[in-house]
Inverse folding.
């Protein structure tokens, strides 16, 4: 199957357009729907070969749409692949329970999607071969090409058609007058010479095993009807060779097993990658008494990282970084940032030196179009002074003891990895603080987090959450305000928040 008819379903028109362009580029015919109800209707009218289905949609969500599609009467298997930003295990389980055959998290990795499409094409190709085979068998039956034989009341063969000769390898004369068990051993059971032994097969088609002249056994379906001729009992047997059908079914089962094995392997690889990432991310510096932080990934892996360390001289360093995109590719992008940050912080390097080193490494290692937004802060606690550099992340804010905005550090610099060090503005801003002040850093995922009505949390939400709060509960207040704003909805981007006590 070189071309498929694909039903793409997503309430986000941008995502739908990207899918349409991608699928058409691969040569597939594309049908579009913007909600689950429309998807069910287009499935019934257009009979697609494959459904790419979003989960979170208005009118009818993807889970319900999948259940209705799978419950619709149809002649062939139509695979459903969920494309969703929902990545928790319960979402995956619910999706598979609803009838999905595979699951791909957003943002879509189009290399993986293309590989899945090729796999589905192979499966549908085998299915089509099976369907064609079954149709051929049916056509043969309709044209009296099955083995048809008549059997008398003594279970002796009285006549056969040419298909019987071709099927069993005998000529007609070898079969006439012989017991029917020569073709279907054990057909009549213990009543080998009595017509009553055929009664179990009357009026219904059953599976059995037949025997060719060369001794080869093969699967058949057998149907027997009884007629009365000249006051004698006569039986008509119709035997169909189902070898091709069984082979096709076995191919489908094997393909399903391979798909499951591929899925299991992918899950195991993701779990291993997650354990490796967690080992890199969770360093001892993050347990510092003056630090509070939270990272909420949009997928299994987060492109946002937070890091903290104290130098032997007592300086406190904190970093919040946000790589382009989210998911595994974004998480991999920020791994070099961690190693460099912890190495230079341990040796008491300045903010400028750390920024230059990070930018040089990312410029050399990251492809064009990929970069890392970051905020780096260093506190010299004995002098109550610090340095901060903001590149591409939202503004950093210093709150006084009453939760009022005391200082704001705007994102005046480019993110890391875009230009060479010679073009990089890496001079940090120096600042001081009053007793019980706190610095808040965050990624744009927090600022752009939408509620159910599409309203962003925004800097205004952050300021409102911190207002009139004491330093000891300020972080919890911001967390609670964000949770109330989201109200159970899944954020479209990674969210990271860091609050640092200024001693």
């Amino acid at each position: 199957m070189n071309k498929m008819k694909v039903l793409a379903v997503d309430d986000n028109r941008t995502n739908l357009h990207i899918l349409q362009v991608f699928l058409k580029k691969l040569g597939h015919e594309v049908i579009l729907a913007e909600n689950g109800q429309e998807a069910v209707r287009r499935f019934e009218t257009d009979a697609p070969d494959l459904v790419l289905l979003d989960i979170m949609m208005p009118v009818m969500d993807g889970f319900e749409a999948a259940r209705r599609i799978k419950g619709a009467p149809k002649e062939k298997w139509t695979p459903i692949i969920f494309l969703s930003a929902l990545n928790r295990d319960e979402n995956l389980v619910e999706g598979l329970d609803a009838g999905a055959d595979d699951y791909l998290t957003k943002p879509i990795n189009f290399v993986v999607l293309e590989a899945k499409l090729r796999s589905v094409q192979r499966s549908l190709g085998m299915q089509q071969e099976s369907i064609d085979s079954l149709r051929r068998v049916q056509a043969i039956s309709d044209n009296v090409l099955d083995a048809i034989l008549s059997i008398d009341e003594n279970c002796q063969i009285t006549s056969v058609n040419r298909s019987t000769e071709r099927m069993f390898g005998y000529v007609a004369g070898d079969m006439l007058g012989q017991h029917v068990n020569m073709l279907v051993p054990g057909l009549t059971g213990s009543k080998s010479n009595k017509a009553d032994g055929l009664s179990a097969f009357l009026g219904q088609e059953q599976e059995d095993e037949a025997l060719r002249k060369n001794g080869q056994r093969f699967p058949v379906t057998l149907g027997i009807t009884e007629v009365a001729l000249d006051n004698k009992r006569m039986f008509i047997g119709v035997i169909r060779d189902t070898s091709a059908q069984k082979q096709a079914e076995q191919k489908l089962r094997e393909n399903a097993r391979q798909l499951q094995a591929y899925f299991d392997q992918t899950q195991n690889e993701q779990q291993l990658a997650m354990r490796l990432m967690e080992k890199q991310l969770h360093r001892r510096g993050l347990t510092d008494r003056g630090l509070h932080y939270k990272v909420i990934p949009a997928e299994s892996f987060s492109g946002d990282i937070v890091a903290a360390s104290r130098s032997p001289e007592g300086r406190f360093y904190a970093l919040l970084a946000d790589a382009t995109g989210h998911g595994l590719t974004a998480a991999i992008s920020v791994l070099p940032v961690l190693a460099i940050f912890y190495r230079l912080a341990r040796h008491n390097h300045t903010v400028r030196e750390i920024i230059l080193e990070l930018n040089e490494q990312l410029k050399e290692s990251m492809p064009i179009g990929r970069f890392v937004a970051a905020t780096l802060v260093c506190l010299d606690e004995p002098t109550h002074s610090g340095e901060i550099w903001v590149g591409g992340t939202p503004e950093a804010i210093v709150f006084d003891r009453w939760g009022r905005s005391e200082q704001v550090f705007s994102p005046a610099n480019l993110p890391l990895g875009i230009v060479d060090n010679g073009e990089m503005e890496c001079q940090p801003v120096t600042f001081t603080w009053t007793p019980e002040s706190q610095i808040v850093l965050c990624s744009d995922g927090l600022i752009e987090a939408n509620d159910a009505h599409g309203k962003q949390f925004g800097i205004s939400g952050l300021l409102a959450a911190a207002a009139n709060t004491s330093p000891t509960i300020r972080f919890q207040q911001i967390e609670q305000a964000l949770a109330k704003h989201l109200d159970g909805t899944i954020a479209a981007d990674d969210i990271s928040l860091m609050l640092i006590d200024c001693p």
Summary: The CA atoms of residues 31 and 139 lie 32 Å apart.
